[in-house]
Structures are given as C-alpha cells and as structure tokens.
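Dear colleague,

Following up on yesterday's call, I've attached the two folding results inline so they're easy to grep. Please treat them as preliminary; we haven't cross-checked anything against experimental data yet. The first protein's sequence and structure tokens come first.
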Amino acid sequence: MMPLRTAWHCVQLGIVAILLIGCGGKPSQVSGTVTLDGKAIERGMVGFTPANGGMRASGVIESDGTYSLTTNRDSGLEPGEYMVTVVSREPGPPATTGPPAPGPYITPQHYAAEATSGLKFTVERGSNKIDLALTTAGAPAASGRK
C-alpha cells in the first residue's frame, strides 16, 4: 500500500500536469447565424482564415443556420483579423460508385473565396457573435465585430 505522503505527491503532480497542459481550447470563440437574403441557410461550411497566416478555423452550418468554429480538434480560434468564406450547396445526385457529386451552389460563388467574399472580421479574446448576412446581389453584408 502506498504511504499517504506519496499518494498526496502523486495528486499534486497530476494537478500540475493538468494545469500545464490546459484544456486544449483556443482563447476566442466565434458563433453566429448565416443568412442569405434574410433567410437562414440550412447547410454548408464557414471558414475563417487568419489575415497574417496561421491555422484556419471552420464550422458546419446547422439546419437552423447557426455555426460555431473549431481549429482542427480544438474549440475556438486565436484572436486577430480574419478573412471569411461561406459555401453552401444543394445535395448532389446519388452516385453509383464513390461519393456523390456536389449539387448546385446555394450561396453565390464569390463567398467561397477569401479574395472575393468581402467578409473580414476582427476576432477578440473571449466570446464573439458574428452573424453573416449574405445577399444574392450587391456587396456582401455582415454584422458583428469588424
């Protein structure tokens, strides 16, 4: 049987290890809603790419139009300036072999590329709500921290 003093040292060492390793999350969290001409988009992906390089964060657009970002397997992302992309497509026709081909775009294609989306935001430490209000005509519109 382990002496009480040795057991207490093991517990302390475990606590220190947990504090040093951390929980694996990033210091900023981003979530919001994606709409097209005022109506929630029901599927797709949102991507946030750091303006100065670094790890890209992405999130799935849920059936109610909401999204939240992750970086690889970590929740959240680092604070900073980001270029944003949004891609939403209809389901493609069923494939006889392999994965199905993607269907037609729901969102205008210019939102799929950082250079043409027109969506740029500053993500601050902590919780950020960034709603993406896309339009089928004209310049991109968005609300949240810019």
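Below is the second protein, in the same order (sequence, then structure):
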Amino acid sequence: MMFEGGAKSVFAPLCGKSLDLIWMYNRGHTVVGAEIAEQAVQELFSEKKLDVHVQHVEGVGPLYKSTDGTDGRLQVYVGDLFDLTKYRDLLLSSLKKDGQYYLMIIDYDPAVWPGPPHNITDQRVRQLYGEYCNIEMMQESNLTGISNPDNKASGGNAPPAKPKSAGAALRTSSYLYDRYYKITFK
C-alpha cells in the first residue's frame, strides 16, 4: 500500500480542490499541492473550514497553508504550472533526498496541436531533471506504431483542417508516445 509505515509527504500537482488532499491530510500526511486556479484553492480551504494563512512565494505566487494547529501539513501553491522550469523547482523544493516522483508525459508532433496537453519529449525530461535526479523510464508506448527515433518534432505539416480537440489532433500526429518515469531526487 502506498501509505504504509507512518506519515508521508505527498506532492499533488494540478490538485484543484480534490478530496484526495483532504483524505491524505486527515490521515496525518503532509500534503503539498500545486494548482493554477486560485479560486479552487480558496474553495478547498473554505469548504473544508480550514484556517489558512496566505503568503507570497517569490517566483511562484501565493502559498495557502493550513494553520489549524497541524504544523501547516496542508500547503497549496498557486502558479503557472505550464512553466516547466518553475514546476520542476517547486517539485524539487518539496522532495527530500531519495524522494520519488512519478511522471507521465505524452510526446507527439507539436505541429498538430499546441496543447494542452503539451508535448514533452524524453530529451526535455532529461534536460529538466537529469542534473538533480536519477531518471528511470518505466514504460514507453508507441501509440501510432510510427517511430520518431530522434525524439524530435517531425516538422511535418499540420492537418488541413484544424482539429477541434486534443484527441482528434493527436490521432493525426505523425508519432505519439506516452512515457512513464520514476524520478528520484539525488
């Protein structure tokens, strides 16, 4: 089980006002969330009637921290999570040595869809985390059967008609991978 052996520290990206945060918090775990929509974070603390202190964190934005006598075990940062460098820095500030993070990405021809979801290559994952973490690709699935051995955008042309959804666009991509990583802080 994920939470055996006592209280853990958990990082929850794009957490919104997920009930999972409260479930983990109520079981004694330290929960650090990150969210782009400040209203969702405000509603989380308000709806659960948790006392909160808000402070500004340089380079990130507001930090909502529980103040109900539990040592601030529930913390949610609000900021631009699509800036991958800021996201990485926030994540690494939350991890202890040998802390683990599981990451799932999709890699497709960005000419067919600007995102979200955003295209992230294996090379970009290693560029972002390689200096600070050990990176293990746990699984890679080629969803089109077409390989992109250089792991770079194909530079191909976008489909003639603009797709109306990410799913429709990705079906037209010249390549499409999903990859799962285990990232361990050095």
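For the second protein, one point worth flagging: The CA atoms of residues 34 and 77 lie 5 Å apart.

Best wishes,
A.L.
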